[in-house]
């Protein structure tokens, strides 16, 4: 069981992982479209991502009503995501805080290329990573800035080692959890 669930009661959901799983599902009508977006480092249309998140959240809470705290990884990533979230979740969910893993591009690229040696991900290559950085700067950073203005961002220096980053995350959850 995930450490964050055991200690703080959060269920971890990754938007990217849900999209990659959906892409693998031969019955999904969105498989090809998702693959194209991911390879191009682009943000998949919000209707798809939100419906996957909603499905997971609903199933988790239906199985255990106390599992109502979620750590959503990689979301919202653009204005469209944010609007989709506000429209679907208005009055149903509160955003407590946003974890921002701040790391420079060179280190991110280096780490993803290393991960690419074994990940099998179609976006762990230099070309897709360059596109992902552009998408991040144009679409995701402004969303982080919006949450910053609301006082919701908790920033972590993610250029440090895995253990140091983990310790920082734990400190934040101990305070906010
Ligand atoms: P990640 O697993 O977070 O590194 O995301 C990998 C890719 O999945 C991204 O480059 C996007 O193409 C797609 N993706 C992840 N999160 C989202 C999201 N919130 N909205 C749309 N597409 C996403």
TrEMBL record:
The family database entries (Gene3D superfamilies) matched by this protein are listed as: P-loop containing nucleotide triphosphate hydrolases (3.40.50.300)
**Carries keyword NADP?**
no
Under the GO molecular function aspect, what terms does this record hold?
Answer: AMP kinase activity; ATP binding; nucleoside diphosphate kinase activity
Q: Which GO terms describe its cellular component?
A: cytoplasm
The subcellular localization recorded is: Cytoplasm
List keywords of the entry alphabetically: ATP-binding, Cytoplasm, Kinase, Nucleotide-binding, Nucleus, Pyrimidine biosynthesis, Transferase
GO BP: 'de novo' pyrimidine nucleobase biosynthetic process; pyrimidine nucleotide biosynthetic process
- Mainly resides where? cytoplasm
Q: Kindly state which reaction or reactions the protein catalyses.
A: CDP + GTP = CTP + GDP; GTP + UDP = UTP + GDP; AMP + ATP = 2 ADP; thiamine diphosphate + ADP = thiamine triphosphate + AMP
Q: Which family does it belong to?
A: Belongs to the adenylate kinase family.
Q: What is this protein called?
A: Cytidine/uridine monophosphate kinase 1
Species the sequence originates in: Bos mutus grunniens (Wild yak)
Q: Source gene?
A: CMPK1
């Amino acid at each position: 069981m995930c450490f964050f669930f055991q200690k703080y009661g959060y269920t971890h959901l990754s938007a990217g992982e849900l999209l990659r799983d959906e892409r693998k599902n031969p019955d999904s009508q969105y498989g090809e479209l998702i693959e194209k977006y991911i390879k191009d480092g682009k943000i998949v249309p919000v209707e798809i991502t939100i419906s996957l998140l909603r499905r997971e959240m609903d199933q988790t809470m239906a199985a255990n009503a106390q599992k109502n705290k979620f750590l959503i990884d990689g979301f919202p990533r653009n204005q469209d995501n944010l609007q989709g979230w506000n429209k679907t979740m208005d009055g149903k969910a509160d955003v407590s805080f946003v974890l921002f893993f701040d790391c420079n591009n060179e280190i991110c690229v280096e780490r993803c290329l290393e991960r690419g040696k074994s990940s099998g991900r179609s976006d762990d290559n230099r070309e897709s990573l360059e596109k992902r950085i552009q998408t991040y700067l144009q679409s995701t950073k402004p969303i982080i800035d919006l949450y910053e203005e609301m006082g919701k961002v908790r920033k972590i220096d993610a250029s440090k080692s895995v253990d140091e980053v983990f310790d920082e995350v734990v400190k934040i959850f101990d305070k906010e959890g």
